[in-house]
Amino acid sequence: MIEEPPLLTIRRAFPRPTAAQVAAFQDVPTGFVCDALGGQGAMNTVIRPIGGLEREVHAAGPALVADNGPAEILATVAAVHFAQPGDVIVAATHGGRNVAAAGDNLCAMMRNKGCVAFVTDGELRDYKGLMEVGLPAWCAGLNPNSPFSKGPGRVGFGATVAGRHVESGDMIVADRDGVVVVPFTRIDAVIARLEQITRLEAEAEEKVRSGYCDFPAIEAMIADGSAIVID
């Protein structure tokens, strides 16, 4: 007979980014971070910021992954207990829907613990209370149904959340455009690329403001025959 797993498995010691590494991502647009990752890195767009796109929101910090089953919350509760200031709790629900992955009180406890954001591929509830709590949160929608806390769950490991694998200790950068995961082993390389990307974006924006609207590369493709024009 297969043994039942423990209700909770918790890993407290995992590599974490340094304070300087975390600081390098503050107020950096997620689009810049994706560019530094080669054009990828974002979770599926089912994940949206609570409060809508009109609300200015940005968060950056190390992931603390709470791997729950569908309709479960025990791992998230344990993650709050073990969270460190600056953490982003990332709660996996493995595609579970029609039940809340957290509500205003649990998000308020995350805020009290010093967490900077909450990300889940599940749904949230208590919208009015969440707005009062003010913790930046990204989720798959709203639903008032209650979750269970029976386990099993895992904290401090990894999980796939909205199509993107996240390991505890990875950098999470999130804004109104979405949630991006920077693998721990690539943090320094991404930081090194961000300076160049920020400069190139500023140059491009200045050209557009000055009236730029043509693409010489398209004319070059027509000239060398790799593109044809049919009138």
Task: Please indicate the percent range of residues in DSSP E strands (runs of 2 or more).
Answer: 15-25%
| Run of helices and strands | EHHEEHEEHEEHEEEEEEHH
CATH architecture: 3-Layer(bba) Sandwich
Helix content: 25-40%
* Biggest β-sheet strands, sense, barrel: 9 strands, mixed
Span between termini: 73 Å
Rounded Rg: 20 Å
Number of strands: 13
Quick recap:
With 231 residues, the protein is α/β, with parallel strands linked by helices. It has helices at 19-23, 30-36, 74-82, 104-113, 127-133, 187-209, 216-224; strands at 8-10, 48-49, 58-67, 88-92, 100-102, 117-120, 123-124, 137-139, 153-155, 158-161, 164-167, 171-175, 178-182.
Describe the structure.
It is a single chain. The protein is of the alpha/beta class. It has a single domain (8-205), classed as Glucose Oxidase, domain 1, CATH 3.50.30. 30% of the residues lie in helices and 23% in strands. It has seven helices and 13 strands. Strands 1, 2, 3, 4, 6, 8, 9, 12 and 13 form a nine-stranded mixed beta sheet that branches. A two-stranded parallel ribbon has the order 5-7. A two-stranded antiparallel sheet has the order 10-11. α3 (74-82) links the parallel β3 (58-67) and β4 (88-92). The chain starts with 7 loop residues before the first strand and ends in a 7-residue tail after the last helix. The mean pLDDT is 94.
